[in-house]
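User: Hey, my collaborator sent me this sequence without any context and asked if I could get a structure. I don't really work with proteins. Can you help?
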Amino acid sequence: MSELKIGLIGNGSISECHLLAYQANPKVKLWAVCDLNEDRAKETAKKYDIPHVYTDYNELLANAEVQAVSICTWNNSHAEISIAALEAGKNVLCEKPLCKTVEEALKVEDAVRRTGKMLQVGYVRRHASNIAVLKKFIDAGDLGQIYYAKASMLRRLGNPGGWFADKERSGGGPLIDIGVHVIDLCWYLMGRPKVKSVSGNTYSKLGNRSNIENYEFYQAADYDASFNTVEDMANALVRFENGASLLVDVSFSLHAKENSAQVNIYGEKGGAEIEPELLIVTEQHNTIINVAPQITEPGFNFQGAFNNEINHFVDSCLGLITTNSPVEDGVEMIKILNGIYQSAAEGREIHF
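Assistant: No problem. I've predicted the 3D structure and written it out in structure-token form, which is a compact way to encode the shape of the chain:
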């Protein structure tokens, strides 16, 4: 296979990151685009020289020349479209989260097994260049067993509104939108241990704070200041079967001084700070050493990570490598996210 023909389903804001990455990959031909907004899809097709435009994803999937698809739709349609794509014989890159519920996740996993096709979950932070560097240290045993991780992604004013603020379409707020990224990243670096229990809290105290003036923030294309049904913030303690634990807090809206991001992991021989920039902490000759890797991108480069993710997906489709973000990882992450929401709703720890 000399050229992989790609179909894009869902032409919202995140799709641009996929399109730019596919365009830069010489092994790819963008072959079809589908969106409910036909005018938007046509504009994209013209911009990226895509020959086929659809408003019904089933028609795109019926195009026999399309070999793989990126699914960039609302979260509530991820499972349905992923299953249909797999059954149509396409390999799938599904934006995070894999879906909304554990039941849906298991159905997607079953479809992967039945069809023999490949599904990669869009955990883009796994593909950041600084993570590739850190992973070499971890895999070599330089940090020892990772037994604790702490992740925090706090926005003081950052509810995008639109479908992000609609629990029916999104599945939730900051936990399932930005929390999934850092929870997955920590879990991945910890060696993907099986989850044992979760204890979580969610808060809906501030709403989307549409009253705030003179402060700009990202707004979805369908932003509606009057509508919001998702949480402002969430926090959780996740325990794993191997004794490791993860502490996380995330927010769309919080009375904080500024936006902040902090992701740390701690092992028996050393630790690492990932956000805002990669720093490794260890010991040598009975002295604590802070190691600052000299790399071009010590922090998270958004489009650079998407380029790496898309290249990884393409090579996985071509059989050159095996994806590092398989459907099974998507299922485990939905278990954790759903467990946190259930724990918050019921006021108790959830055991698996």
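In plain terms: The first strand starts at residue 4 and ends at 9. You can pass these tokens on to your collaborator as they are.
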